[in-house]
Amino acid sequence: MSNHVSSAASWQVRLKVLLAIFVLVFGVIIFRLFQKQILQFDFYQALASQQYTTTQELPSSRGKIYVKDGYNTSHYYPIALNKPSYQLLAVPKNIKDPKEVAEKIAPIIKKDVDEMYDEINNQKPYIPPIAKKLTKLQAEEIENCDFEGILLIPEEWRYYPEGKMASHILGYVNLDKEGLYGIEGYWNEFLAGEPGVLFGERGSWGNIIDVGIASSPKNGEDLYLTIDRIIQNKIYEKLVEAVKKYRAKKGTIIIAEPDTGKIVAMASYPDFDPNYYNKTENVERFNNPAIAEVYEPGSVFKIVAMAAAIDAGKVKPETENIFGKCIDVGIETVCTSTGRAYGKETMTQVLENSDNVGMVWVAEQMGGKVFYNYIKDFGFGTFTEVDINTEVKGELLPLSEWREINRATMSFGQGIAVTSLQMIGAISAIANGGELMQPYVVEKRIDWEGNEEITKDKIVRRVISIETAEQVKEMMVSVVENGFGKKAKVSGYRIAGKTGTAEVPVAGRGYSEDINIISFGGFAPVDDPAFAMLIKLDSPEGAPWSSDTVAPLFGEISEWLLHYLQIPPSE
Amino acid sequence: MKMINLTSSGIANGEGDKNSTIKKKLRLGPISLNFVTIIIIALITLFYLAQTQIGTSKKSQIRDLDQRREELEREIESLEVEIAEIRSIQNLKKDVGSLNMVPTETINYLIEE
Question: Which of A132, A162, A359, B104 is most exposed, with minimal Cβ within 10 Å?
Answer without folding.
Answer: B104
